[in-house]
Specification:
The protein is an alpha+beta fold. The protein is 20% helix and 39% strand. Strands 1-6-2-3-4-5 form a six-stranded antiparallel sheet. The longest helix is centred in the N-terminal third of the chain and has 7 residues. The chain is globular, with a radius of gyration of 12 Å.
C-alpha cells in the first residue's frame, strides 16, 4: 500500500474531492492512529471516524486544525498525517 503525506488543509480537501479516504497519524514506535475522513464541500464539514476508539466527529476547517478538537491539524503541521492510497493518488 502506498502512502502520501498530507501537506496542508487544502491538500487534504483535494484528496477528499473524490470521496472518503483512509488516513493515519504516525505515532512513536511505528504505531499509528487510523481514521476515515470525508469532506462535505457544501456544508464545509469534515467527518472523521477514529478507529482507535470508534468515535466519530463532525469538524469545521478551523476545528480540524485545532488541537482542542483533534490531533489531525497538529499531525499535518508536523508532517505525520498520511493518506493510504488505494489505487487513487493525489
Amino acid at each position: 500500500m502506498k502512502v502520501l503525506q498530507v501537506k496542508s488543509l487544502e491538500h487534504l480537501k483535494k484528496i477528499l474531492f473524490k470521496g472518503p479516504g483512509e488516513f493515519f497519524i504516525a505515532l512513536n514506535y511505528d504505531c499509528k492512529s487510523s481514521k476515515t475522513v470525508s469532506y462535505d464541500k457544501k456544508s464545509k464539514v469534515f467527518y472523521v471516524t477514529n478507529w482507535i476508539d470508534g468515535t466519530e466527529q463532525e469538524l469545521s476547517s478551523r476545528q480540524i486544525m485545532s488541537v482542542g478538537w483533534t490531533n489531525i491539524g497538529k499531525a499535518i503541521k508536523k508532517g505525520a498525517f498520511y493518506y493510504e492510497c488505494s489505487g487513487r493518488q493525489q
